[in-house]
Specification:
The protein is mainly α. The protein has one domain. About 65% of the residues lie in helices and about 0% in strands. The chain starts with 20 loop residues before the first helix and ends in an 8-residue tail after the last helix.
Length: about 110
């Protein structure tokens, strides 16, 4: 009788994927870093920039809103820049493969 040896192989893509717990944890760490950096930047540069604001924007409620919302909005801008840079630095085939996955085309789609 012939015995067969079953080998378990890890199927890994040549490029790291943007899925899984590690990617999510790293995204949270970088988002926290961006938030801390943005709070420091807003606290540092807001007084100088406030001189150019209209008079109605010098009310305490408006200033508080700006100081709270500016770091949060900057996170979206920073992640957009990170995503844009990653697309520029990735090989052309890798970008096309990601676009196909986003649109739902390709063999990876299941019903």
């Amino acid at each position: 009788m012939k015995t067969s040896i079953v080998k378990f192989r890890k199927h890994r893509s040549p490029r790291p994927s943007r899925e899984g717990c590690g990617f999510l944890a790293l995204t949270c760490v970088f988002s926290c870093f961006f938030l801390i950096l943005n709070c420091a930047l807003v606290a540092r540069f807001y007084p100088e920039l406030a001189a150019f604001f209209p008079r109605w924007m010098h009310e305490p409620k408006i200033e508080q809103m700006i100081k709270f919302m500016a770091p949060v909005l900057l996170i979206f801008v920073q992640w957009w820049v990170v995503d844009f840079a990653a697309d520029l630095l990735a090989p052309a085939g890798h970008v096309r493969q990601n676009e196909a996955k986003r649109k739902g085309a390709g063999p990876d789609r299941t019903i």
